[in-house]
Amino acid sequence: MMGGREYLLRPSFEALADIESRTGRSLLEILNDFAGGKAGFKTTATVIWCCHLASRPEPGRAPSLNDIGELIVKEGLFKIAPEALKVLVGVLNRGNDEAKKKVEPTAPITSTAG
User: Fold this and answer.
1) How does pLDDT run across 89-105, given as a tens digit for each residue?
2) Is 58 within a domain?
3) For labelling, which of 28, 64, 73, 81 has a CA lying 20 to 30 Å from the CA of 15?
4) CB 55 within 8 A of CB 10
5) Coil, strand, or helix at residue 5?
6) Domain tally for the chain?
7) Is 35 part of a structural domain of the chain?
8) Among 75, 102, 70, 91, which Cα is nearest to 13's?
9) Cβ atoms 48, 9 nearer than 8 A
10) How far is 82 from 39, CA to CA, in rounded Å?
11) Please, which pLDDT band fits residue 2 given cuts at 50, 70 and 90?
């Protein structure tokens, strides 16, 4: 949950292609950034926003990329970036039963910040 609202993330092909297009980086490069603690606000917001839009939110309820960015600023990058990383790792681990137990690729973002 960010800003008191739950955002379902669906890492579809469309979302992943959009992430790569908007960042100008491959998914593996982005994953390396997250794993190395180098993913910033824009990359984190882009991952969350693209995957949320792929979940097909109700008309009029889809936030803008800027809205997601502002929520990340409010909640804290160190709280939200790991959730974006989980989604991307989940994509790479599909078909790996052991990884599926550890990562839920369509999990909503949750936060205790209010």
Assistant:
1) 988 887 555 444 444 44
2) yes
3) 73
4) yes
5) strand
6) 1
7) yes
8) 91
9) yes
10) 10
11) confident
Domain that holds residue 92: 13-102
The reply to whether 108 falls in a domain is no
Q: What is the pLDDT of residue 64?
A: 94
Do the Cβ atoms of 75 and 111 come closer than 8 Å? yes
Residue given tokens 């955002």 in the structure block: 7
Contact (CB, 8 A) for 18 and 47: no
Residues 80, 26 contacting (CB under 8 angstroms):
no
Q: Which residue has the tokens 């990058």?
A: 77
Distance from C-alpha of 31 to C-alpha of 104, rounded to nearest angstrom: 16
Task: Tell me, yes or no, whether 114 lies in a domain.
Answer: no
Cα–Cα distances in angstroms (integers) from residue 103 to residues 50, 66, 70, in the given order:
19, 27, 26
Of 25, 30, 113, 24, nearest to 73 (Cα)?
113
Longest dimension (CA), the chain: 38
As a whole number of angstroms, the distance between CA 1 and CA 105 comes to 15
